Amino acid sequence: MPRQFWDPSRKLLSAIRTYQSLRGKTNLYYKLRTKLCVLQHKFWSVVCAAEIDLICNIGGGLLMPHTNGIVIHPKAIIGVNCLIFHQVTLAGIVKLGFHVDIGAGAIIIGPLSIGDNVNVGDNVNVGANAVVISDIPDNDTQVGIPARTTKR
Asked: What's the predicted TM-score (pTM) here?
């Protein structure tokens, strides 16, 4: 839940999660509440300048400190405890695993998978302004255009 009134990223995620929990219910109250969630989503999307679809599959613990310019494809799958900075684009069917950090301005063009999302050891970092066009294995850091593994 949002901690204060002006917390756009949390309000946007709250509208998305509430809509997803109410979707498909046939009671009149739930239908009206769903319409309210759609309006809240549109409002906070404009405030955040973000394009995140209402049906996007988002895991728990997603952090978006600055939501300005974030674009997420409707069929993207975002795992648990991910961090997405501003101006990030997830284009196409992108699957983020557990604990994936994406730097500001990164572009990820799918279909691809970042972390295998099977083990709990994904821990992948994508650097700022990186362009990812291929799968990234667990415990990896990628930077550059096109993104390549950094030397350890």
From this structure: 0.85
